[in-house]
Amino acid sequence: MKSIAWTKYGPPEVLKLKEIEKPIPKDDEGLIKVIATTVTAGDCEMRRLDFPLYLSFPMRIYIGFFKPKRIRVIGQELAGEIVEVGKDVKSLKVGDQVFGTTGFKFGAYAEYICLPEKSKDMSGPLTHKPTNMSFEEAAAVPTGGLEVLHFLRKGNIKRGEKILINGAGGSIGSFGVQLAKYFGAEVTAVDSAEKLEMLGSIGADHVIDYAQEDFTEKENTYDVIFDVIGKSSFSGSLRSLGENGRYLIANPNLIKIIRALLNGGKGNKKIVTETTIQKTEDLQFLKELIEVGKLKTIIDRKYPMEEIVEAHRYVETGEKIGNVIITP
In degrees, to the nearest 5, what angle opens at C-alpha 175 toward C-alphas 74 and 306? Predict the structure, then answer.
């Protein structure tokens, strides 16, 4: 079967189209024909192993210090069809259309992948695909949608509150705008000028071009600031929070984590910098929202697997609007 081999840590060119053996499902797994997967900023960071030292060092120990050995195919979310099931699988059958994440197993950049019926160890959740979405649309939901749902719940977002989402135009942020609106918030979305029209179309009440305005220097205050990309000013964001405000940082560097720990017990403002726990019931919740028309996927570009290098190059520009899809 076709796959994209992760040959070393580095630029997009380290990804190579390669034939590998088709996997065989274990007793508790389903064999999935991958019909669509995605390229996210997280995939690019993984490919480069471009993380803070406190993360990259243990990851090198696990994956391979000088080049990837334990994980040879990346890709973290997918939609596809069950073509075989293990003898202990109960909730999935051949022909079922599914979507989900691979968790830390990765491996979605391939024609087929085996995933357990129930999330376990390092694998992510898997469930039936929304009936009103294409495979391409569904593939882009799990990682970004679950990340947003986790943080908005941690931020205890309430109806009528004001939330600012920094980096709102990508895969995570575009779901963030829609879910915040679903929870009844007034949403201000911050990103580049090219993404503002899209953000307004999915429900943002206010938009800010970060190249023209720094939201931390304005007088507006918010109940919640959700920094998807981890680049907002820490002190400026705290100043921009109202009483009992919550500062949610999805991609913090080490300095922000330390500052969050040092500031965590001070005042009435809450800082959240934690890893998302992906749960099957949360993915099913997103599926239900999709099927009643409360959540949709924004797709920027689609690439065949053979053009994975070009797809990674594009995502690394930071210019993608919503999601980039790969079709094996």
Answer: 30
